[in-house]
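Justification of computing resources. Each target in the renewal requires a structure prediction run like the one illustrated here; the chain below, 210 residues long, is used simply to show the kind of job we budget for.
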Amino acid sequence: MTIKEFFSFKKNRFFWINLLAMIIVAGVLVFVVLKALDSYTRHGQAIIVPDAKGKTVHEAQDLFGAEGLQCIVTDSMYVKEKPAGSILEHVPSSGQKVKEGRVIYLTINTLNVPTQIIPDVADNSSLRQAEARLLAAGFKLTKHEPTRGERDWVYNIKYKGRVLAAGERVPVGSTLTLVVGDGAGESFESDSTVEAPVIDDGGAADESWF
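Resulting structure tokens:
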């Protein structure tokens, strides 16, 4: 085969038509594959997670459901200032971009308020000692209530006006009132000098000799 014969296909129009058809088919296949990948991975269709903090679980379900997302409760903790059952945080957090159908994990404020035992300070602690132990345990204190007794001695602990028994449990972080002696019951001993009674015998008899 001569060189002229080898390059003779350039003059064959069917060759160029077939080559062009192959290029078009290859381009179409590449386009279809890329579109299929985009559809499968939802490329460019990210959803921004809405903020559900402070809402109830039912409200969060409606909120996330409207965006094509799901949510489940996975944890709980206690925050006194927040309503029971309200959402404290969620993962992923608000503002993040996720795919449709993503599950959002919720942490809610516990429905049951945890309780703890009152430290044993009634009738065995001074005011300063009782305050230190109760505050260290996370309780809050109001102005103490005076009662007749030894000054600055703690006689009782009250919660919402009720005297608490030893070992009783109250909600965590409760506000308590200490019943403290005002000193009015203290007994003081005073030294007194007992004077001997004075006996008057009328003086000594005056005897005279005759």
